[in-house]
Specification:
The protein has 152 residues and is mainly alpha-helical. Helices cover 78% and strands 0% of the residues. It has one domain.
Length: 152
């Protein structure tokens, strides 16, 4: 933890945030790796799990908020829930084909919310530890590469 940080941390809250942030990125890596080999079948059979896990992430964010952690640490779960709700609506309720060809009115907000979720889990790690921030960056690059490669 940086001694120059203006934020106060409790060890339990640091661990909780760290586990959530890295679990999210590992989830994305597994998701994109599986999706690469069976895009359409995987999206409809198992892709919803990524969205559903926004609910436990929200619970963690609520704990961090209630325990008085800085907004940077609890915002990710709320943004994740918004991204998941939007993704579920588009993918499973409306069953819209929006990736190929790109439907920009859907793709734009989807990508924005996806990246915002990633950033709210990634950037605050720099307030805790630079090595954690760099480790997350490596995982983010891997998940991004797998995401790009998984599209037809």
């Amino acid at each position: 933890m940086s001694s120059t940080s203006p934020f106060r941390f409790s060890l339990g809250m640091i661990v909780l945030y760290f586990v959530l942030a890295f679990a999210f990125q590992v989830l994305l890596i597994v998701h994109f790796a599986l999706r690469k080999w069976a895009f359409d079948r995987y999206i409809y059979q198992l892709g919803w799990i990524v969205y559903a896990l926004s609910v436990p992430a929200l619970v963690v964010s609520l704990i961090l908020l209630i325990k008085g952690q800085a907004w940077a640490f609890w915002t990710g779960g709320f943004v994740y829930l918004v991204w998941a709700a939007f993704g579920c609506w588009v993918e499973y309720v409306q069953k819209l084909k929006w990736r190929n060809p790109p439907r920009w009115p859907i793709l734009g907000p989807y990508v924005f919310l996806y990246l915002a979720t990633n950033m709210f889990y990634w950037w605050p790690l720099g307030l805790i530890s630079r090595p954690l921030w760099y480790a997350y960056a490596v995982l983010f690059v891997i998940s991004t590469a797998l995401n790009i490669m998984s599209h037809k």
